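Project standup — Tuesday

K.O.: blocked on the structure for the chain from last sprint. Re-posting the sequence here as requested.
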Amino acid sequence: MPPAPRVVGVDEYATRKGRAYGTVLVDAETRQPVDLLPDREASSLAAWLAERLGVEIVCRDRAPFFAEGATTGAPQGPGRGPLAPVAQPQRSG
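H.V.: unblocked you, prediction finished:
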């Protein structure tokens, strides 16, 4: 298995819009795709993160399944302290 990215971006993609979705994982520093998960379940993201201890930061949108997956799968960063706060876009207005 290649080394885990330090900063991973997580988002959903549609294989069939409105019907079937997966999760794309991107190295946010190199902007290269890392993996595709077949669904957007919290348990799938949690399992992926649990196998990659080098992930320090998870960038995601506000989807509750990504929040749960990040919290469950990577509760601590490599220094065994808390995972860096999840980056979320600020909404104006």
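K.O.: great, moving the ticket to review. Residues 5 and 36 are 14 Å apart (CA to CA). Residues 78-83 have pLDDT under 50 and may be disordered.
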